[in-house]
Structure formats: structure tokens, C-alpha cells
Design a protein that fits this description.
Shape: globular
Number of strands: 16
Helix content: 25-40%
Distance between the termini: 24 Å
CATH architecture of the largest domain: 3-Layer(aba) Sandwich
Number of helices: 18
CATH topology of the largest domain: Rossmann fold
Strand order of the largest sheet: 1-4-3-2-7-6-5
């Protein structure tokens, strides 16, 4: 709710521990918040309300009262598209259906849908997405392509049975903006040149990595699109296929109790002899070993969940790939984060963080810096942020880095070799954006960079 600074909260927590009072009572006594603030926070659990700026006539409550299930679903999806939401969640409660949106990594809520509409709304979701209402007691997933607001979207719906009824999550993928070229993705010039050079090679391994929910799937599809436009014979093994790329042979590897399903599928399709293989994951040792073997003869592009490029290399080694084997084929490793951008409408200069805070982040001798923040306005839903962008680091497969992989160096040591070979760390990319007023110091801290 942006009512507290970090020092205020820490002081209140110290007092709470020493006195045994409730935290809310301490905050009210210190004058940091009102009792109304406490009541609101407890009711909403800190989730911000989402206001439709089209006016009160377009607010949720009139829609609930004046529309049926079809109108409710249409309103929820249209608002999601206009606000740039990545997904919408309908969660049944004891007395209502909660509606939550995910926008730029923030969670927002609408006024809940009255309980009397729950059954009709759930049935409309099943009908719209072609789900089997006779199997509502089991999780289901479906994808449709349709027009929402003024754009064409892929909508991925997933339903789950809960204590109070069917919970539904709908992910929105804007077809006009999902596939991006490398500059639009956020790759800086030197990283673009390095990555494109390796992707044009006839063999080797290019690892794509990020923590979960930080956009690596979007990058993987953009890389896949780049490879196809280069007139390569490309095969992609995905779990599941979330986007169709014309010109690529995309194979959906169904989830299976057998852990080596991806490996078996990869072995079976090698008779086609593609020039490039893209893997949506390295789920097990067998797949990782086979991918490494193939990279000696063709280009292999796997996706790995890891917080840094060096740790993506470590993740492969932990799967059982030997250092000598990986060092022979390693071409490059990308890692990325999604960074919230300051709203350009309400951006303003901000006070610098305390000296001890900067020192704790290793910035004690960084020299004079400017800091900015978003005040909060209707455009950014009062958060001060509007939109996100990816930042990247690209670990090069230099002779020194490969030697470090072969020797089994720790990720920190490998990262030092990569920096010496020209890599710019994620942390340094983010710090540059802080100084340029693109993002905030708080966002850098949130991402632990």
C-alpha cells in the first residue's frame, strides 16, 4: 500500500518483538498508518484494487448486476487486455468469486462476483474453451485464439477443482507482440551480435536461461523464429507447444510419468536429421547427455531454469553432463530478468537510498548517481511502474570459459572468467537502467541483483 518505508517497518518489528504487541497496533501508535489502513490491508491481503479508467459506468459491480455469465466473462477478458494483464484468476470463495489480475508482476483485484453467478460463469468458461464439464473434478487445460478488445489473443485456460468450486486461470498472449526481434527483447548490441553469431553456427550448444516467470519462453520462441527465418531445418521439442512458428517442426512432448519421455522423443526424431534442435527443458540426465552429444554435430538450444548464466552451466553439470563433454560444445549462455519500468507519466526524481543501503549493495564507491521513482497515476494503476523489459547477460564460450567448465570451476569463478571475456552482468545492466531512470533502485533490490 506504499504506507511504510523499510526503516519504519524494521523499527516497528523490533518494538513488536520487545513488547509483544500486534504489529498493526505498533504501526498505528507510531502514526505510520491509520486503523482504516490496517482494516483494509487485512481485508485485501495487500492486493491493490484495479480501477477501470473508462469510468463508473464500466466498473465491475454494475457489470455483475446487469449482465449474465457471458457478459461477465467478456468484461473480465476485455479489461485484462486493455490493462495489459498477463493472466486472470477466478477463485471461488465461501460467499463470492474473487477476481484477480496479474499486471507487470503486481496482483490486482476487482470487486468479487456475487456467489449466485458462480455456476453460470464456470459453465461459460467450460463452453468457451471446449472443456469437459463431466470431468470438472479433474484439472483441465485448453487454448483458443480469439479477438479481445482490439487485438487477437491466444487464451490459455486452466481449471482446478477447489473446496468452493471450480477455480479458473486464463493466460493472455497478445499475438501481435509475443514474437519479438532481438532488439525488442532487450538484448544490447554487443549481446545481439554475440548471440546471432553462435545461432548461425552449424553446431554447438546455446543455453537459454532465467528463473521461472522471467520470460525465457518468450526468448526461446523468438530464437526459434530467428532460426526459421535463416532457412534452417529446425525441430523443437516442447512441453507443451504454446506458440506455433511457421516453418519449424514443433513436437509436443506429452507429460508422462516416465521421466525419460523427452529423451525418448529426441532419440526417435533424430532420424529426420535436423540442423537445429530446440528443447523447452532438460528434464533429466538422459536428455542432458543426449543433447550434449548431439551438439557436437548440430546446433542444440535448450532452456534451463537458473538465476545466472554461470549457474545455468552448473545446472547442466548437476544433471550428470561431464565438464569435458560440455566444454567441447558450449557456445554461449544467456540469462535474463524481467524488470519493471518506471511509469513515464508520473516519473519524478527520488531521494537516494541511505549510504549504508548502497554499501550493502556494493555501491559505496560508485560515484554520484541519479535515482527516480513513479509517483503513481491512473495509467500505472497507482503503482509507479508501467510495463516490463528484459535485461540479459550473455556468457561467451571463450577458450578461458571452456577451460573453466572443463575444470569444474564454481559458478562465481566461471562468471569472473566470462566478465573478463566481455560479459556484462545482469546486475550491471540493471544498475545502468536505474541511472537512466528506466527502473528504480527498489526494483534492483527486489530482483536481488
Amino acid at each position: 500500500m506504499k504506507k511504510l518505508s523499510t526503516p519504519q517497518l524494521l523499527e516497528a518489528l523490533v518494538e513488536q518483538k520487545s513488547t509483544g504487541q500486534r504489529l498493526g497496533e505498533v504501526l498505528v501508535h507510531r502514526g505510520h498508518v491509520s486503523r482504516e489502513d490496517i482494516d483494509s490491508a487485512l481485508r485485501t491481503q495487500g492486493v491493490n484494487p484495479l480501477t477501470d479508467t473508462h469510468g463508473v459506468a464500466f466498473a465491475s459491480n454494475p457489470v455483475w448486476e446487469q449482465s449474465g455469465p457471458e457478459g461477465i466473462i467478456e468484461y473480465i477478458l476485455t479489461l485484462a487486455a486493455r490493462k495489459g494483464a498477463s493472466d486472470v484468476q477466478l477463485e471461488p470463495k465461501e460467499d463470492c468469486v474473487a477476481v484477480k489480475y496479474r499486471i507487470d508482476g503486481f496482483t490486482f483485484r476487482l470487486d468479487p462476483i456475487p456467489k449466485r453467478f458462480q455456476a453460470g460463469v464456470a459453465q461459460k468458461i467450460f463452453d468457451t474453451f471446449g472443456l469437459d464439464s463431466a470431468r470438472e473434478a479433474k484439472p483441465q487445460k485448453s487454448l483458443i485464439t480469439t479477438h479481445v478488445a482490439e487485438g487477437e489473443y491466444d487464451l490459455v485456460a486452466q481449471t482446478l477443482p477447489t473446496t468452493y468450486g471450480i477455480s479458473a486461470t486464463v493466460k493472455l498472449i497478445n499475438r501481435a507482440t509475443f514474437i519479438k526481434d532481438f532488439p525488442t527483447l532487450g538484448l544490447e548490441l554487443e549481446d545481439r551480435v554475440r548471440l546471432m553469431e553462435e545461432l548461425r553456427a552449424s553446431f554447438g550448444m546455446v543455453l537459454l536461461s532465467a528463473p521461472v516467470y522471467h520470460g525465457v519462453k518468450t526468448t526461446a520462441y523468438s530464437v526459434l523464429n530467428f532460426l526459421v527465418r535463416g532457412e534452417r531445418e529446425v525441430m523443437s521439442l516442447e512441453q507443451p507447444v504454446q506458440w506455433r512458428i511457421e516453418g519449424a517442426r514443433q513436437i509436443e512432448v506429452e507429460p508422462d510419468e516416465h521421466p525419460s519421455k523427452m529423451e525418448e522423443t529426441l532419440r526417435s526424431v533424430m532420424t529426420i536429421r535436423p540442423e537445429v534442435v530446440v528443447l523447452s527443458s532438460l528434464p533429466d540426465r538422459g536428455t542432458a547427455l543426449l543433447a550434449t552429444q548431439l551438439a557436437a554435430s548440430l546446433l542444440v538450444v535448450p532452456v534451463v531454469n537458473a538465476p545466472t548464466a554461470a549457474q545455468a552451466v552448473a545446472a547442466c553439470l548437476q544433471l550428470g553432463v561431464t565438464g569435458p563433454a560440455l566444454s567441447t560444445v558450449l557456445s554461449a549462455v544467456t540469462c535474463q530478468r524481467l524488470v519493471r519500468q518506471i511509469c513515464t507519466v508520473c516519473r519524478q526524481p527520488a531521494e537516494p537510498p541511505p549510504a549504508q543501503t548502497l554499501a550493502a549493495r556494493g555501491l559505496a564507491g560508485a560515484g554520484p548517481m541519479q535515482f527516480f521513482r513513479g509517483k503513481g497515476c491512473p495509467r500505472c494503476n497507482r503503482t509507479g511502474y508501467h510495463g516490463r523489459r528484459a535485461i540479459f547477460e550473455v556468457l561467451p564460450g571463450t577458450a578461458e570459459v571452456r577451460a573453466g567448465v572443463r575444470q569444474g570451476l564454481a559458478p562465481a569463478e566461471l562468471e569472473e572468467l566470462a566478465v573478463a571475456g566481455g560479459m556484462t552482468r545482469l546486475r550491471d545492466r540493471c544498475l545502468s537502467l536505474v541511472g537512466e531512470g528506466v527502473t528504480t533502485f527498489d526494483e534492483m533490490v527486489r530482483l536481488r541483483l
